[in-house]
Design a protein that fits this description.
This protein is α+β, with helices and mostly antiparallel strands. It folds into 3 domains: 299 residues, FAD/NAD(P)-binding domain; 101 residues, no CATH class; 127 residues, Galactose-binding domain-like (Jelly Rolls). The protein is built from 10 helices and 26 strands. Strands 1, 2, 3, 4, 5, 6 and 18 form a 7-stranded mixed sheet that branches. Strands 19, 20, 21, 23, 24, 25 and 26 form a 7-stranded antiparallel sheet that branches. A hairpin with a 2-residue loop joins strand 4 and strand 5. The longest helix has 21 residues.
Length: 605
């Protein structure tokens, strides 16, 4: 009898799990020069925001003004807004897939479930996954491993320290800690997607679905979702009182009975205004909130997130409310939010590197809903926008650590400032830190034809805490750097306003910060969504040639990204940026609607 095929791949870094955390970790590591394998057990990327589950991306910016996550997170959201105005899930899947496949340094293994780790001397030497589509055992040998699986599969396979459940109050001195610790968690949910039509749409539930004749039968859960676009049936939730990993199949079966029963209640049992509504999607893969959490050198706590604490080794941030779903889930009464425990945060909090690597396995990092945090702190860090910025942080750190030849703990101890500088250079926001300015860019060699351009050099690339931090320039008016002698310019970096608070973007304001929508109505324009009007669409970069003439070295009329970095490789005595106006033909509008250019940074290096 022959054995199944076996393949071994060598890499610098192996990322296990392709949700937003793992996807962004792989992209960041690859962009910083590491050879990466991304092992994902599903046929597509995105995890809870993929077309399999269809949860929207929430983060700090969803709760605190001007805290929208940037870096790779904003890069993919802007691409989605630009090419996917109807927020189609298939297109969103394709955007994430395309971002990964565009990186030559990433070997993407889809449909490959990690199920074995070989360890030596307390370190992970390799992991092995079974790829269902090819019936192949895929083994990956790497220097450093990043677990973004959510369920922390490498914890048990490598004996890394981890916890499950809720801590006692005395453990970390948390207000919401329990009198006695337990193993209960937040549950998992199935998502529903529907749309309104212009005709009656009957619905017959499957015979095995539960029947909820009254609101009381449904535990008084809030089900006015058809009127409140931008919410969902998050309360179709179970699993917190059992094993949220090993009992998933049984939990899924129960959730399906509940979900079909809930839609039957909406359609057929009471007046919910749902006669013309048609079911598009009901998930068969539960969206999971919580399972195992790793133990790192630092455990983030409720006290940290409520205080908006900043850390010397901060590499990411959060700001979503403490949003603790109580373990009873659907079985609990929904009256006055009795199934939830919430507290709004007013300031962002830092996430330290020490919470993103294993305490006892020296070449293991992690990001996403498995980081080193207490159960209560986890209730805010678990959302996908925050998971995404953590992913970019660990991917960047991993690549730099591999290049340095150090384990991540030693790298963090010796090179944390270099890592923070690299993250901010890649447009990641770190509260309390300012990005370093290129030494070629100084106030004494910067000038603008119109307005004060000094904010371009303040190291803060967004509106925040009452400060604009940007340059408001007229279109067709140059911003110029001049040099005393011919100077080598390798590239330029430009950060423009992408409306991080989504104030000037057409469409439903309740869903502008999300990647995908759950419901669409006829009486509102929910079929398409706008693009940030303040975005700089067209601009030109010019340089002085040897004869003193300005020559174009870069020009675009179709920019849709917040950060633009382009190689120049020139020697010159002057470089200038010209935001372009609308003086071309009507077919070549050069803005998305703003008469001014709002720019946070323009530098040459």
């Amino acid at each position: 009898m022959s054995e199944l095929k076996k393949v071994t791949t060598n890499a610098d870094i192996c990322v296990v799990g392709g949700g937003l955390a793992g996807t962004f970790a792989a992209i960041a590591a690859a962009r910083h020069g590491a050879k990466v394998v991304l092992m994902q057990d599903r046929p597509m990327l995105g995890g809870n925001c993929s077309s399999e589950i269809r949860m929207w991306v929430s983060g700090a910016g969803s709760r605190v003004r001007n805290l929208q996550e940037t870096g790779i997170m904003e890069e993919v959201l802007l691409e989605n807004m630009h090419i996917n105005p109807s927020r189609n899930f298939a297109v969103w899947d394709g955007i994430l897939y395309g971002k990964v496949k565009a990186e030559e340094n990433i070997n993407l293994m889809l449909n490959c479930a990690c199920c074995k780790a070989e360890c030596e001397g307390g370190r992970i030497k390799s992991v092995t996954g079974f790829q269902l589509t090819t019936y192949t055992w895929q083994t990956v040998e790497a220097k450093l491993f990043i677990d973004c699986s959510g369920d922390s599969i490498l914890a048990e396979l490598s004996d890394a320290e981890y916890v499950v459940g809720r801590e006692a109050r005395e453990t970390y001195g948390e207000e919401w800690g329990l009198d006695t610790a337990d193993k209960k968690t937040m549950g998992m949910s199935l998502m529903i997607q529907a749309h309104e039509t212009d005709h009656a749409c009957p619905f017959t539930p499957p015979a095995w679905a539960y029947t909820f004749n009254t609101d009381e039968d449904m535990k008084f859960k809030p089900h006015d979702c058809l009127d409140k676009i931008g919410t969902n049936f998050y309360w179709i939730e179970l699993g917190g009182e059992v094993d949220s990993i090993h009992d998933t199949e049984e939990i899924r079966d129960e959730l399906l009975k509940i979900a079909f029963g809930v839609w039957d209640h909406i359609k057929n049992r009471g007046d919910h205004g749902a006669d013309n509504w048609e079911l598009d999607f009901l998930g068969f893969l539960p969206g999971k909130r919580e399972s195992r959490r790793y133990i790192g050198d630092y455990v983030l706590t409720q006290n940290d997130v409520e205080a908006g604490r900043q850390f010397d080794d901060e590499v990411a941030y959060g700001g979503w409310q403490i949003d603790n779903h109580l373990p009873g889930g659907f079985a609990m009464s929904g009256k006055e939010g009795g199934h939830l425990q919430k507290k709004r945060l007013t300031e962002p909090y830092g996430i330290p590197l020490r919470s993103l690597y294993s305490k006892n396995v020296p070449n293991l990092m992690f990001a996403g809903r498995n980081i080193s945090a207490s159960h209560i702190a986890f209730a805010t860090v678990r959302v996908m926008g925050t998971c995404g910025v953590m992913g970019q942080a660990v991917g960047t750190a991993a690549a730099m650590a591999v290049r340095s030849g150090q384990d991540i703990r030693e790298f963090g101890r010796d090179h944390i400032r270099e890592l923070q500088d690299a993250l901010m250079e890649d447009d990641c926001f770190l509260p309390g830190f300012r990005r370093k300015i290129s030494p070629l860019c100084r106030m004494d060699n910067l000038s603008a034809v119109w307005g004060d351009a000094s904010n371009l050099l303040n190291g803060t690339d967004r509106k925040i805490w009452g400060n604009d931090n940007g340059y408001w320039g007229m279109c067709d008016r140059a911003i110029t750097y001049t040099f005393d002698k011919p100077t080598k310019i390798n590239d330029f970096r430009l950060i423009v306003d992408s409306d991080l608070d989504r104030e000037y973007t057409e469409g439903n304001p309740a869903v502008l910060n999300i990647s995908t929508t759950l419901f669409r109505r006829l009486d509102y324009n929910y079929t398409t969504f706008g693009f940030p009007k303040c975005m700089l669409k067209s601009f030109r970069v010019e340089a002085l040639d040897a004869s003193g003439e300005w020559k174009t070295v870069y020009e675009t009329h179709d920019n849709y990204q917040r950060m633009i970095r382009e190689k120049l490789n020139i020697e010159t005595t002057g470089v200038r940026l010209i935001p372009l106006g609308t003086y071309f033909s009507e077919a070549m509008w050069n803005t998305y609607g703003s008469a001014q250019a709002h720019i946070f940074s323009f530098e040459v290096r």
